[in-house]
Specification:
This protein is of the alpha/beta class and about 280 residues long. It is about 50% helix and about 15% strand. The protein has helices spanning about 5-15, 30-40, 50-55, 60-75, 90-95, 110-125, 155-165, 190-195, 210-220, 230-245, 255-275; strands at about 20-25, 45-50, 80-85, 100-105, 130-135, 170, 200-205, 225-230. The protein has an eight-stranded parallel beta barrel with strand order 1-2-3-4-5-6-7-8, surrounded by ten helices. Strand 7 (about 200-205), helix 9 and strand 8 (about 225-230) form a beta-alpha-beta unit. Helix 2 (about 30-40) runs parallel beside helix 4, helix 7 packs parallel to helix 8 (about 190-195) and helix 9 (about 210-220) packs across helix 11 (about 255-275).
Length: about 280
């Protein structure tokens, strides 16, 4: 199957009121699990590789090419997305490798500098046919200036989107990165106001902290792309730990990494079903 554009997954989902799952890849097993889960659910998915993961691997190329190969071989539409990139060289590298979308994160900068940097990246990416996501302010949980209680202002969001020409916007509505409990309290009224203020899809970062019922409500209120990472990492690690405790003498990584991959694939399939519910 040809590589799918992120916009070609997110756009129709927004029009139909469905959510799209975007799951972070840390290593090969994550990417394999996410694609397997999407195939089992018969639903499209977005594979995300963050700048933190690039630093972990020492380069975007190995993990990026692996994700692209898996996406092309999948029986369902799979897009490959660069997540939370803070440097323009990394954006350029992703575009040159064949990523169909990038999330450029200049949210640590003052507003005007964020606008200027994001506008320049968006212009470059659009010339290459690449979809661009950005963040206004900082979603909590990554040592940012905003606590989870911070909210994105709809008027400022609209002005930012118009000034930068981005294709999607990550917003703060009570969500927070790296939550290990699923008890985030979202402001669904604000989600709807943001949806009504913007002509582009909204992105929910930090969705690991949101319970299933609230994921459904968030999509109904106006969210489209839903990013989940910590929840799957927790499941992956717990499964590895359980397998090693059950068989302390095991030395073949395939014995425990394979089990973790299967557990994550099943959860991805389940979550995609939750997000696609209407």
């Amino acid at each position: 199957m040809p590589l799918t554009s992120t916009g070609d997954i997110v756009g129709p989902a927004r029009a139909e009121g469905r959510g799209v799952g975007a799951f972070n890849v840390v290593q090969m097993e994550h990417a394999e699990a996410i694609v397997a889960g999407a195939e089992h659910a018969a639903l499209p998915v977005v594979l995300q590789i963050s700048e933190n993961t690039v630093r972990y691997h020492g380069s975007l190329v190995p993990i990026g090419l692996a994700a692209l190969a898996l996406a092309r071989a999948a029986s369902v539409p799979v897009a490959v997305h660069l997540d939370h990139a803070e440097t323009r060289p990394l954006v350029r590298e992703a575009v040159e490798l064949g990523f169909t979308s990038v999330m450029f994160d200049a949210s640590r900068l003052p507003y005007e500098e964020n606008v200027a940097a994001t506008r320049a990246v968006t212009a470059y990416c659009h010339r290459a046919g690449v979809w661009v996501e950005a963040e206004l302010g900082e979603v909590g949980g990554k040592d940012g200036v905003h606590a989870p209680g911070t909210r994105t202002d709809p008027d400022e969001a609209r002005a930012f989107a118009e000034a930068t020409a981005v294709d999607a916007l990550a917003v703060a509505v009570g969500n927070s990165h790296a939550m290990r409990t699923r008890d985030a309290v979202l402001d669904f009224g604000l989600v709807t106001r943001l949806r009504d203020s913007l002509d582009i899809p909204l992105v929910l970062h930090g969705s690991s902290g949101v319970c299933d019922a609230d994921l459904v409500k968030a999509v109904a209120a106006g969210m489209t792309k839903v990013n989940i990472s910590t929840h799957l990492n927790t499941l992956f690690t717990r499964t590895v730990r359980d397998r090693l405790e059950e068989s302390p003498g095991v030395v073949d990584p395939r014995r425990y990494l394979g089990a973790a991959r299967e557990a994550v694939a099943a959860e991805v399939a389940r979550l995609l079903g939750v997000l696609a519910a209407r």
